[in-house]
Design brief:
Elements lengths: L28 H30 L1 H28 L1 E4 L3 E6 L5 E6 L3 E7 L2 H5 L2 E8 L7 E6 H20 L2
Antiparallel strand pairs: 1-2, 2-3, 4-5, 5-6
């Protein structure tokens, strides 16, 4: 039997280590703790102000009612924040990045790596306290608003570098 000549296989444009190694990912649990801290801090300040104002204007019974109303509002805000935290997910695929979000209105964004212009990592003061960052993807489309909040700083840096490398490799192949 004659030997079949081996064809030269070009190396992949993106190293295998840069390809996705996991399924859908979610923000860090620290994001949930940060949202809880924000709601509780606001509720304490608002309860103190409402209780004091109502107590001085209408007596102790009104102060208790005002503080109870603020507590109920904080519980509702925590419920919404929990659902919003759970709604975020992202997944790196071979050709694109998928970002899902939304509580009342579910939104699915598919961002092809070759269409990304740059990847931005931001962290506000509260994010930095909780060691979190947000990855934002920018494309040529004006309506592109793909962002992934609440990532640990190391994961955000890894994702930024990985997406930038994949974007360059896919754009070079266009």
């Amino acid at each position: 039997m004659p030997a079949v000549p081996q064809q030269a296989v070009p190396p992949p444009a993106v190293p295998p280590s840069a390809l996705p190694q996991h399924g859908p990912m979610s923000p860090s649990p620290r994001l949930w703790r940060m949202r809880c801290a924000e709601v509780v801090a606001c509720a304490v300040v608002l309860a103190a102000a409402a209780g004091t104002g109502a107590g001085l204007a209408a007596g102790p019974a009104a102060a208790v009612i005002a503080v109870g109303a603020v507590a109920a509002g904080a519980a509702l805000a925590l419920w919404f924040a929990r659902n919003r935290f759970r709604s975020w997910a992202y997944q790196e695929r071979d050709e694109d990045l998928i970002v899902e979000r939304g509580v009342l209105i579910r939104r699915l964004s598919v961002v092809p790596y070759g269409r990304m212009q740059f990847v931005d990592v931001t962290a506000g003061p509260v994010d930095r306290i909780f060691r979190l960052a947000t990855v934002r993807l920018h494309t040529a489309a004006a309506a592109s608003d793909a962002r992934i909040p609440g990532l640990e700083r190391e994961e955000a840096a890894r994702l930024r570098d990985r997406l930038a490398a994949l974007g360059e490799a896919k754009a070079a192949g266009l």
